[in-house]
Design a protein that fits this description.
seven-stranded mixed beta sheet; five-stranded parallel beta sheet; alpha/beta; 21% strand; BCAA_transport
């Protein structure tokens, strides 16, 4: 009886001292960018389900806000989560322009932010409380340019760039620089704007110029429409892109026209790089009935796990300052998407994966390490 009383007392004591730690999640769950947000959020949610507590027993609660893909909503979400919900860290946003809004608020309030998939090169410039678990655009653009010229033996290209999108502009710039240094020729750069739907003028130029391939560092809605309209006029050269087309929505929108598209990505579920990756894919398959874990879901999970890892290292000093310091000293962390190291500036070092769409499926081609 005495032993039972002692155990009951210990349980009550642990319940009293266990706390709830809050992490804010800021993503576009509706609107034109919802495909990105949903993929990231699925990863964060599953990671939280699998690891709902810190090592000291504190429970971890995620509070998500839908920004609808709007910059102002992104800033408002950050303000609310910090001021009202008292979060100790933030995960988000999905795209670079909106993530900039989140970072500006968090930097002022000194709350750490981990961007899961925002890859703009200058995103973290002059920021102390910002980091990411994805690679930078200069890395994926550079590596794909080398791959196209040296491995695929493609010598001439037309680049289609979204003039209103910093992701597109930065990725195009990195790709062009490296492709030219290899000896490749950029025959022409064609510009579009987010939300455009009629690309007849664009695809007619592609057919007339007749490059070896086309590089589209743009988001999936426009890329899918370009692929469909290019096929309709008989343009049959290779179409390629960055990680802006790495979701199922691109395949659904593009149909047969996107078969053969080659693109850069950060993860491939058929090639899990770590034990956590294998375990996470199994959990995802049990939860969703498929092992086809999207790359952005892996990145969302990694953002959560890196945040939790930092919090565990701050058990005796669970403050935003300590959490931020530990995030920025992440070294060889074996995440879902691969092994991650984060430098003092918040930038992550990780591999880039090359994939091809075949018969409406993403097919792994190769991996390129840092």
């Amino acid at each position: 009886m005495k032993k039972k009383l002692i155990l009951a007392s210990l349980f009550c004591a642990s319940a009293i001292y266990a706390a709830e730690v809050k992490i804010g999640v800021i993503l576009p769950l509706t609107g034109p960018l919802a495909a990105y947000g949903h993929d990231v959020y699925e990863g964060v949610k599953l990671a939280n389900t699998l690891s709902p507590n810190l090592k000291n027993g504190d429970s971890v609660k995620i509070i998500a806000i839908d920004t609808k893909g709007d910059k102002i909503e992104s800033a408002n979400a950050a303000t609310r989560l910090i001021s009202q919900d008292k979060v100790l860290g933030l995960i988000g946003e999905a795209v670079t322009p909106n993530t900039m809004q989140v970072l500006s608020i968090a930097e002022e309030r000194k709350i750490p932010v981990i961007a899961p998939v925002a890859s703009g090169d200058k995103l973290l410039d002059k920021k102390t409380y910002a980091s990411r678990v994805c690679f930078m655009d200069s890395f994926q653009g550079d590596k794909f340019a080398n791959y196209a010229y040296q491995t695929l033996n493609l010598k001439s290209v037309v680049v289609i760039v979204d003039q209103s999108n910093v992701y597109s502009l930065g990725l195009a710039r990195a790709f062009e620089k490296e492709f030219k240094q290899n000896g490749g020729k950029v025959l022409k750069k064609l510009t579009i704007s987010s939300g455009d739907k009629d690309f007849k003028a664009i695809v007619s130029q592609l057919k007339n110029i007749n490059p070896d391939f086309v590089y589209m560092p743009i988001y999936h809605p426009e890329a899918a429409l370009i692929a469909r309209q290019a096929k309709a006029v008989g343009f049959d050269k290779l179409l390629s892109a960055g990680d802006g087309v790495n979701n199922k929505t691109f395949i659904e929108l593009g149909g047969d026209a996107v078969n053969g598209v080659i693109f850069t990505d950060s993860f491939d579920y058929n090639n899990p790089p770590t034990k956590l990756s294998k375990d996470f894919i199994q959990a995802y398959e049990k939860n969703r009935g498929t092992k086809e874990l999207p790359a952005f879901s892996a990145m969302g999970a990694d953002a959560y796990y890196v945040m939790i890892n930092a919090m565990n290292e701050c058990q005796n000093n669970l403050t935003p300052e300590c959490i931020n310091d530990k995030i920025h000293s992440t070294l060889n962390f074996e995440g879902v998407g691969g092994v991650i190291s984060i430098d003092k500036n918040g930038n992550a070092s990780r591999s880039v994966v090359i994939k091809e769409i075949q018969e409406q499926k993403q097919v792994y081609k190769t991996i390129i390490n840092p």
